[in-house]
């Protein structure tokens, strides 16, 4: 756990507050507004439905990273896009609502380390079972 905490640069995270996805009253749009600092009409226009979850295209986040006036928000959006594209890739070239939920909780000091370790273990186990699979990140 300590190695993942170091890799993810989460030294301020409270180990006793572990991430577990629960449905809250705050919607996907509101969380994305909070993280990106963008207006509700902008966020609503970017949201897409992919399979069973809501997503935002990575290209939209990339454009926001390049043009957002607030440097802190640019860094947050960049980190969000890394979480969505590398750590929890569910829909190709999209960041889904589970990643937004996890990222939103980071601000509250809730650690994603155990969830990421579990996803890594599931992915590696799946690769081992198929014998010809290769690890491409948390699936």
Quick overview of this protein structure:
The chain has 139 residues and is of the alpha+beta class.
Give unreliable regions as ranges.
none
Strand order of the largest sheet: 2-3-4
Distance between the termini: 20 Å
What is the domain total for the residues?
1
Task: Please give the largest β-sheet.
Answer: 3 strands, antiparallel
Residues in helices, as a percent range: 55-70%
The sequence of SSEs as H and E is: HEHHEEHHEHEH
- Structural class label: alpha+beta
The Cα radius of gyration reads 15 Å
Tell me what portion of residues adopts beta-strand conformation: 5-15%
Q: What do the pLDDT scores average to?
A: 76
Using DSSP, what is the number of strands? 5
């Amino acid at each position: 756990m300590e190695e993942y905490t170091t890799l993810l640069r989460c030294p301020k995270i409270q180990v006793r507050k572990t991430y577990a996805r629960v449905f809250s009253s705050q919607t996907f749009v509101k969380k994305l507004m909070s993280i990106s600092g963008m207006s509700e009409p902008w966020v609503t226009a970017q949201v897409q439905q992919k399979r069973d979850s809501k997503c935002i295209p990575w290209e939209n986040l990339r454009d926001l990273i390049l043009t957002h006036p607030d440097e802190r928000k640019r860094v947050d959006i960049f980190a969000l896009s890394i979480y969505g594209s590398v750590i929890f890739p569910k829909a190709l070239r999209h960041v889904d609502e589970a990643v937004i939920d996890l990222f939103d909780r980071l601000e509250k000091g809730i650690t994603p380390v155990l969830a990421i370790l579990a996803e890594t273990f599931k992915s590696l186990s799946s690769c081992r079972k198929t014998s010809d699979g290769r690890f491409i990140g948390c699936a």
